[in-house]
Every structure is written in C-alpha cells, then in structure tokens.
C-alpha cells in the first residue's frame, strides 16, 4: 500500500472502501478516487502491453490528456482510468491494441439532424482556473454561460498546487493554489448564470461557431455569441531509450496521485527539469514523505525561482545541473536511470554517466498548449517556443482570428495559474462586452491588464513578453467590439 497517511498541508477526505475486480481478482480502493489511483495504491503499475512489440505501458499524464491508461471498464473499452472515478463492483481489465468499439453506423451529428442543438450566450470549454474565471467574469455582467468540463470536477491543474501563490493581494498572494481553487469552485457552483456540463468533452469545432460536445453517450451541438476555449496544456516528454516504461510520469500525474488521491507515486523519484514545476513538485514529494533522489537539469542553472530550489537543497536533494537523461532501465517497469553531463552544446560527455536507482521518473520538461479546436476552427496559429509551441494568434482582449472565438489560459500560451486566471477574466469580459452588457469596459480591462503586466514584469516574465510580441507581430484578429 502506498497511501499517504499524514500530510502537513492536505487533509485527504477519502471515500469509503469499495471492492472492484482487476483482471478477475478482487481489489479494494476508495470510492471516488480514480481507478488509476486505486490500482497504483494496490501496486499495479503496468496497465497494458502492446500487441506487437510487447512494450509495457503505465500512466503518463494522469490528467486525461494522453491515451496511456486506456482500459476496459465494465466491458467498455478505451476508458481513461486516470480520470474515471472508482465505484463499488466495477470490473477493470487490460485491453488489446485492437479493441473494437461498437459504433452505430447511422450516427448523425446534431448539425445533420437538428436535434440536441443548444444555444448559450457564452460557451466555455475547459473548467480549469482560466475557464472558471472566464465564466465568473461573464456572469458578473449578466451573461448566461455554459461551462463544459470533460472531467468530473472543476479546477484543472489548480486543484493540485499546494504551494503559496506569488503576486499581489488581488491574486491572493500567500494563499495556496488548492485553497484558491476551492474558493473559485464554490463561487461558480452557486452562480445562477453558469450551467456546468461535467464529464462532457468538446470533440470538434464546426461551422457557425458550433462546438460538438460528447456528453452521456450523446453528442450535442453547442453554440454561443462567444466561445472561449480554455483547454490548458499537455506535458512534454523527452526522447531517450525506454522512455515509455511504466513509472515515467508527467509532473501532473505525480501531483494527481499525491495531492488529490493521497497516493505515493513511488519510493525513489528522480525529477527531470529544474523549472518551477520540477522544483515545486520535488518539494511536494518531500512533504509527502517520498525520497527524491535528485533533480536533473540540462541548463547551467535552475530555471525556476531560487526560493523553491533552496527549499529542496536544504532537504538534501542533489540538483544535477548540466546533466541530462541517457536512458531508463527496467524489465517491465522503471528500476533505474542513467544520467550524464552535457557540454555547452547540450551533447552528452562520454565517461560522465551516473546510474541512479529510481522507481519513478517525473518529467517536468515543459508544457505545450492544447490547440486542436483552434486548428479546426481555422484560427491562425504560430509556433512560439517561449509560449510552449503552437499558439492561436490573439490580442489583449483574448480575441483570436476567428470572430467570436476567444482564448484563455495555457491554451493561449503556457504561463502559470495566476496569469491563467487573469486571461480568463479578460476573455469573460470581452464575451460580456460582445453582448453589450459591459459599461465599465475600459476601467475593468485596464485593471486586469495592469495585474497581468505586473505578473509578467519579473525576470521570469521576460521570455513570455517576448513570445507574446512575436505572436502579435502583424496580427489581425477578429477584434469584435
Ligand atoms: C501538469 C501541470 C502541472 C502544473 N503545475 C503548476 C504549478 O505547480 N504551479 C503553477 O503556477 N502552474 C502550474 N501549471 C501551469 C498551469 O498554467 C496553471 O496552473 C493553470 O492550471 C492553467 O490553467 P488553465 O485553465 O489554462 O488550464 P488547466 O488547469 O489545465 O485546465 C484546463 C481544463 O480544461 C479541461 N479540458 C481540456 N480539454 C477539454 C475538452 N476538449 N473538453 C472539455 N474540457 C476540456 C481539462 O479537463 C481541464 O480541467 C501546471 C500545468 C500542468 C499541465
Ligand atoms: S489519459 Fe490517462 S494517463 Fe494520460
């Protein structure tokens, strides 16, 4: 069992114990935690074996973004067990690569049939901090909002951030991310202007700004005067031998297991990346009683805030700067890693290899915006490395190049949670203005932009600001009002 029984910050409100079966054997988990967490706590790390090369697979993102955890649940294949809550009596089985899904060949979209078309004033895709703040802002001016979230709860990545936030009083500096998340969730759940569609996934962008949403085994066509996309970001991996071994997790997976479901991701964790996420998650691991065997960073210095680096160094964790990962080892899951020094051109230096025992490698090597819906909508996108990859061109009102389509949060360029909330507010404000509901637009916009600019004014904001300038060179957005 790898459950965290005591934590200095988090009180885990675990559900009652329930029985379910995994590959025909009875297993016990806690109701409401994800199936992946229950299996992990029962020692199951290998979730799948590929049909042809017999490579084993485990979790990678644990936030519903990749397909590494697909299993058959109650006979239904392709269930993302990292976001599916555990219930009494479930049957969970491994599936093959060629698992068949029974498709109804007569299936028609709502656009074909005219059925299940739903109209809102503002449609928001993604219930992370950006989407939630966009909803609250639009609602504050009286707009009727439908907020679509593919998971069973709101909060996105904010719900795992146990560290205290920086910024000013307006960004609740000094308050922990999880507490900010709870407070926003409570406000939004009691907001009469906001209807929330949980367990609902936006799967396609169609003509006339209509979004197709898969919900409870049906497809809905959702359209609005404005559509705000706030789908967040996914984690990058690195290329090295055996980078697919179970036990190699994104930082989001480690945070989900540890900070949401109270499960230790492993015994000995090696962190790859000394940016803010790598440093923060390393400290969170130490708080959860996990041994962090080292932090590996290819750059000459840590990329994140020094205050985070000092905390983990004080705990005795070595930070290997100018090092990279040469390979991972293990028969069916991770058992150890080899790291090596790199030269100024980031080439590995022969003879500098070190072997380190680890059962978890936590990848914190950057995020890329989730932008498929923008591509489908025909938005102009640019590749801006400082913002994480392809990003929809957008202005400071959050308009994209498609009229009525706005962007908020990480999907418009990866920053951090406070900026995501502010860009959410900006998008919600613009959406309300498009409905002619806003009288104090200039004042409110100015206030939000001042807060955002102040967040971006430190040394860590320089790259972001340059990235945004490049994104907006020669920009012609739809603008709107
Ligand atoms: C793994 C990870 C760890 C992070 N750790 C930190 C940290 O420690 N500190 C920090 O400041 N920042 C961290 N960040 C950075 C992140 O910028 C912010 O914390 C913030 O959560 C971004 O807010 P967001 O609303 O844009 O995206 P998210 O918080 O990612 O929320 C996006 C939401 O959209 C939903 N969604 C996605 N696609 C669809 C769809 N098609 N249909 C319906 N819903 C959809 C998702 O389920 C999710 O709830 C982290 C990001 C990631 C990915
Ligand atoms: S979707 Fe479940 S691990 Fe990525």
Considering the chains and any ligands shown, give keywords for the structure.
481 residues, alpha/beta, Ubiquitin-like (UB roll), FAD/NAD(P)-binding domain, 3 domains, 7-stranded mixed sheet, 5-stranded mixed sheet, 11 helices, 26 strands, globular, binds flavin-adenine dinucleotide, binds FE2/S2 (inorganic) cluster
How many alpha or pi helices?
11
**Strand content range:** 25-35%
- CATH architecture of the largest domain, please? 3-Layer(bba) Sandwich
CATH topology of the largest domain: FAD/NAD(P)-binding domain
Quick structural overview:
The chain is an alpha/beta fold. It is built from 11 helices and 26 strands. The strands form 7 sheets. Strands 8, 9, 10, 11, 12, 13 and 26 form a 7-stranded mixed β-sheet that branches.
Describe the structure.
The chain is α/β, with parallel strands linked by helices. The chain folds into three domains: 17-93, Ubiquitin-like (UB roll) (Roll), CATH 3.10.20.440; 110-234 and 369-472, FAD/NAD(P)-binding domain, CATH 3.50.50; 257-367, FAD/NAD(P)-binding domain. The chain is built from eleven helices and 26 strands. The strands form seven sheets. Strands 8, 9, 10, 11, 12, 13 and 26 form a seven-stranded mixed sheet that branches. Helix 4 (177-189) links the parallel strand 9 (145-148) and strand 10. Helix 3 packs parallel to helix 9, helix 5 (251-260) packs parallel to helix 6 and helix 9 packs antiparallel against helix 10. The N and C termini lie far apart (57 Å). Flavin-adenine dinucleotide binds at residues 64, 125-131, 148-151, 156-158, 161, 201-202, 230-233, 235, 250-252, 277, 280, 367, 370, 409-410, 414-417, 420. Residues 121-423 form the FAD/NAD(P)-binding domain. InterPro entries: 2Fe-2S-bd_N, 2Fe-2S_ferredoxin-like_sf, 2Fe-2S_ferredoxin-type, 2Fe2S_fd_BS, FAD/NAD-bd_sf, FAD/NAD-binding_dom, Metab_Enz_Cyan_OpOx_G3PDH. This is Sarcosine oxidase subunit alpha. One of its GO terms (molecular function) is oxidoreductase activity. Keywords: Oxidoreductase.
């Amino acid at each position: 069992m790898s459950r965290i029984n005591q934590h200095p910050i988090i009180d885990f409100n675990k559900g009652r114990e329930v029985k379910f079966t995994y590959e025909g054997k009875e297993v016990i988990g806690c109701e409401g935690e994800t199936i992946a967490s229950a299996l992990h706590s029962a020692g199951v790390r290998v979730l799948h074996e590929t049909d042809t090369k017999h490579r084993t697979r485990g979790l990678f993102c644990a936030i519903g973004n990749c397909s590494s955890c697909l299993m058959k649940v109650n006979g239904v294949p392709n269930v993302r067990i990292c976001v599916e809550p555990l219930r009494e009596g479930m049957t969970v089985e491994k599936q093959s690569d060629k698992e068949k899904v029974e498709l109804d060949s007569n299936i028609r979209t709502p656009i074909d049939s005219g059925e299940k078309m739903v109209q809102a004033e503002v449609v928001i895709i993604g219930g992370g901090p950006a989407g939630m703040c966009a909803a609250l802002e639009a609602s504050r001016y009286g707009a009727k909002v439908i907020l679509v979230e593919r998971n069973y709860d709101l909060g996105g990545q904010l719900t795992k951030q146990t560290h205290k936030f920086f910024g000013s009083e307006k960004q609740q500096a000094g308050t922990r991310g999880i507490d900010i998340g709870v407070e926003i969730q409570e406000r939004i759940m009691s907001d009469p202007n906001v209807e929330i569609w949980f367990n609902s996934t936006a799967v396609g962008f169609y003509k006339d700004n209509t979004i197709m949403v898969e919900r409870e085994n049906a497809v809905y066509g959702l359209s609005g005067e404005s559509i705000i996309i706030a789908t967040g970001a996914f984690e990058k991996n690195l290329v090295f031998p055996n980078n697919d071994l179970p036990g190699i997790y994104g930082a989001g997976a480690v945070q989900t297991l540890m900070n949401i479901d109270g499960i230790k991701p492993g015994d000995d964790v090696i962190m790859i990346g000394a940016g803010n996420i790598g440093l923060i998650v390393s400290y969170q691991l130490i708080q959860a009683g996990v041994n962090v065997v080292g932090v590996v960073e290819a750059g000459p210095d840590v990329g994140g805030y020094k205050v985070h680096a000092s905390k983990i160094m004080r705990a005795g964790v070595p930070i290997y700067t100018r090092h990279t990962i040469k390979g991972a080892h293990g028969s069916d899951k991770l058992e150890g890693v080899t790291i090596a020094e790199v030269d100024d051109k980031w080439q590995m230096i022969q003879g500098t290899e070190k072997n380190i025992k680890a059962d978890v490698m936590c990848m914190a090597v950057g995020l890329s915006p989730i932008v498929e819906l923008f591509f489908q909508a025909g938005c102009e996108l640019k590749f801006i490395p400082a913002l994480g990859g392809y990003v929809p061109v957008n202005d400071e009102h959050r308009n994209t190049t498609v009229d009525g389509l706005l962007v908020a949060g990480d999907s418009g360029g990866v920053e951090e949670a406070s900026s995501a909330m502010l860009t959410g507010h900006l998008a919600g404000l613009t959406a309300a203005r498009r409905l002619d509901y806003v009288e104090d637009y200039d004042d409110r916009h100015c206030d939000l932009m001042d807060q955002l600019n102040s967040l971006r004014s430190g040394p860590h904001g320089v790259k972001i600001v340059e990235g945004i300038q490049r994104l907006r060179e020669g920009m012609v957005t739809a603008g709107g009002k």
